[in-house]
Amino acid sequence: MGKPRLPENSAPLIILLITVRISSALLNLIYDCDETYNYWEISHYLIYKNGYVTWEYSPKYALRSYFYLWTYIWPSFILSFIISNEVILFYLTRIAIACLGIFCELYFCIGISKCAGTSVARYCMAFMLMSSGMYFASTSFLPNTLSMHLTMITFAAWFCDHYRLAIFAAGISILVGWPYAAIVYIPIALSMLLSRRKQLYFILFSLVYGVMILVPLVLVDSYYYGKLVIAPLNAVLYNVFNTNAGPELYGIEGKAFYLINLLLNFNLVLVGCLFSLPMLILSKIFMTTRKHKLLESSHWMCIISLFLWLFVFSMQAHKEERFMYPIYPLICASAAHTIKLIEQFVVGAKQPYSSPVFKSIVFLCCVAFFGLSLARVFSLHLGFKSTFQVHSDLKEFDKDRDIQPILGSINSMDHDNSTINERFINVCYGKEWYRYPSSFWLPSSRRYRMRFIRSEFRGQLPKLYDGPQKANGLETRIVYDDFNDLNKEETSRYVDLERCHYLIDSSQNITADREPDYSKNTKDWQVLSSHNMLDLANSPAILRSFYLPFISYKKNSYFKYQLLRNTRLFIRNEKGSGASGVVM
């Protein structure tokens, strides 16, 4: 196949790839509260010394790695001394993730080009470029995304016979990213262990690179936890070998969950991927050329790794969309291989016009795939962009100097003789706690704090790290009593509603004792902004999943996602007179 290279005339695809990935960094929303509370919030703490922390970061459990966070946020940490706008740092971190992904995708296509040919590489690049799944995953601040990126490096390096790079990338993916990513590398590891020439090579460099990666990882994590910690080992012990607790506490799904999810994110490409196995079997019977054997070897590696991953994770009760991220590129590669195999069958049939007809069919399928992917992206973005919009609105209202928040000693509404010493402007979340986009979106970390109020949710919410530096200068080393690994409610997380200067809430038809429609209490709450949010439960499955212009808006159901202001905690500065009064 010659020297590894990108497909000829691929410059337009590369430009499109860069454009799409940067647009994802700038426009992609946060759809998983784990991304907010396990990664963005603790990153905010590392940069600004305040942020919410989940129980996984308690030194008692130590399941998460601080080293992983620093691999992305160190530029933002440096720039935080000269850039005051925290949202800019949020997007700069995302752009850093996107840039790593662009490099990995290009190298992945180079590897496929060497092993399977330029046409397969071109199809693969196009599929990754057009996939809604890759669009969402490529800029998420999650270890699963890092493992997805490094899966591309690992497989590409293996395709190009760069075995040391393959071992190194897999090691980072497993130890720094997501330890369960090891499953996707099992076929590559076995292929090297079963080869006498590569067996010792694999063992030696696995040990060398393992130590190289573990030393800085353990040093950084042990520094923050205040004790010797191997975070990926702790995570595996908790999720796999813990009999008293486990991931099932956070929800379970049926065995078809992943298939449905992948179909939504890859539609026709997933169909092509699933046809890989029968096409490989047919090609094994009817095709024996050297060129085909090279194509077949890369195809087998992709498809075996992919189906192994699907089998293992489908057997687990707890399922999350992000668990599929590491195989997203393999889905695209397998579908690209399938098209190439079908093309070889068509050309081999030597039927008149068969090749032009086949190419026309492939082109139409690509157009349909792109259309469905675009509809998927638009559906989620338009349906849930209000989570970011209300915080943009909050920033605008923060600029209003005619209305000032009341801080210091605040009289309690419920207890006549008590007062509250409030130092910060509180932005509260109740039932919408899981949509919080992170403290980077508050107007200022010096003046604002997000707080939780009670809702019908009975699980454990994150804890605010916001006190003075303790435990040898680090609050991260303190073992707090109000963390547990059983997802039991910790009441210390809540503040009284009377302390909330702002409230971000939704106005829906269904209410509960602890989830009233606060917007109807016009005496205490003023609606500052209101945006439509897609009501998944009351919208048609197809139209809530894929956006159709005009039709989706008419047929789907929406509720109001609102920013409310506590009229009792603001005073209006009367211009000219110097007088002030409570906002009503």
TrEMBL record:
<feature type="transmembrane region" description="Helical">
    <location>
        <begin position="66"/>
        <end position="83"/>
    </location>
</feature>
<keyword id="KW-1133">Transmembrane helix</keyword>
<dbReference type="GO" id="GO:0000026">
    <property type="term" value="F:alpha-1,2-mannosyltransferase activity"/>
</dbReference>
<protein>
    <recommendedName>
        <fullName>Mannosyltransferase</fullName>
        <ecNumber>2.4.1.-</ecNumber>
    </recommendedName>
</protein>
<feature type="transmembrane region" description="Helical">
    <location>
        <begin position="120"/>
        <end position="142"/>
    </location>
</feature>
<keyword id="KW-0256">Endoplasmic reticulum</keyword>
<keyword id="KW-0812">Transmembrane</keyword>
<dbReference type="InterPro" id="IPR005599">
    <property type="entry name" value="GPI_mannosylTrfase"/>
</dbReference>
<comment type="similarity">
    <text>Belongs to the glycosyltransferase 22 family.</text>
</comment>
<feature type="transmembrane region" description="Helical">
    <location>
        <begin position="162"/>
        <end position="188"/>
    </location>
</feature>
<feature type="transmembrane region" description="Helical">
    <location>
        <begin position="12"/>
        <end position="31"/>
    </location>
</feature>
<keyword id="KW-0808">Transferase</keyword>
<feature type="transmembrane region" description="Helical">
    <location>
        <begin position="200"/>
        <end position="219"/>
    </location>
</feature>
<dbReference type="GO" id="GO:0006487">
    <property type="term" value="P:protein N-linked glycosylation"/>
</dbReference>
<feature type="transmembrane region" description="Helical">
    <location>
        <begin position="294"/>
        <end position="315"/>
    </location>
</feature>
<feature type="transmembrane region" description="Helical">
    <location>
        <begin position="256"/>
        <end position="282"/>
    </location>
</feature>
<feature type="transmembrane region" description="Helical">
    <location>
        <begin position="327"/>
        <end position="349"/>
    </location>
</feature>
<keyword id="KW-0328">Glycosyltransferase</keyword>
<feature type="transmembrane region" description="Helical">
    <location>
        <begin position="89"/>
        <end position="108"/>
    </location>
</feature>
<dbReference type="Pfam" id="PF03901">
    <property type="entry name" value="Glyco_transf_22"/>
</dbReference>
<dbReference type="GO" id="GO:0005789">
    <property type="term" value="C:endoplasmic reticulum membrane"/>
</dbReference>
<keyword id="KW-0472">Membrane</keyword>
<feature type="transmembrane region" description="Helical">
    <location>
        <begin position="361"/>
        <end position="384"/>
    </location>
</feature>
<comment type="pathway">
    <text>Protein modification; protein glycosylation.</text>
</comment>
